């Protein structure tokens, strides 16, 4: 499969008054055409920052390094003008909180139709009709009536599906979804899974799904990338990963699942201001040796001296 997105050695540092938060540190991920990559890891490991960096949605007090190649361009070098087109048409961002991401004073149908008018050049009527088709596709019924309603008239699940409809209306090549199961109860989670499967079968985009919900990731992923303290520590095929993870952190993460014994990971997440030297998981790792005070190598799959 051809590569669509290639994030190489990306670093994102928040420059605060007295401190620097190294939220992402030389992270590399690749998303191929028509594949689903899930980015997993504990809260605060830098997943959302990495996702937002791709769309350049971060505040200005950051220092950013590395490159983000998308479809032949390094996004970090693209002017804001061009980034707007990319955001409107080629890469969709489905944010974490559907409630605050829809405009409360605009009809949902309009919010779905507008990007198609702006970016695909559709006339108002055609765009409205397409918005209704999309609402139907995403099971928001009756679509004609729902299109004329405002976000507060929708349930939480419907708002999330409407946001996805909005993000996918221009048939982007890449969809980045941040924690799509956050706040979704177990019975409704299956619908979110179906939703992404449907998008995938329909217009065959690539998906980057950011989540700390491992069972959810397992149901959708072709490949998995694991983040720990701002770094990507393992990348693997989903099936291989969920059966036999390599990195000690990945192993611990899977063992902490209810289905695998609910064994909590010992110790605390390290600081991103002053991360541990060498391997960042070393202070919590059962396999650590003196070697681990040195920066672990990355052989393309796992960042750990055990596999060097
Ligand atoms: N605007 C900001 N200014 C300073 N630090 C920030 C900012 N945004 C995020 N951070 C820090 O960057 C780090 C990574 O945050 P991020 O939101 O990417 O984590 P995450 O892996 O997405 O976690 P979660 O699963 O909780 O969403 C955290 O330490 C966070 O406090
Ligand atoms: Ni996040």
UniProtKB/TrEMBL annotation:
Q: What is its EC number?
A: 7.2.2.11
Q: Which reaction does it catalyse?
A: Ni(2+)(out) + ATP + H2O = Ni(2+)(in) + ADP + phosphate + H(+)
Q: Where does it reside?
A: Cell inner membrane
Per the record, the major location class is membrane
GO CC: one term? Answer: plasma membrane
From what superkingdom does this record's organism come?
Bacteria
Q: How does it assemble?
A: The complex is composed of two ATP-binding proteins (NikD and NikE), two transmembrane proteins (NikB and NikC) and a solute-binding protein (NikA).
Instruction: Cite the NCBIfam families for this sequence.
Output: oligo_HPY
Q: What is this protein called?
A: Nickel import system ATP-binding protein NikD
Organism (species): Thermodesulfatator indicus (strain DSM 15286 / JCM 11887 / CIR29812)
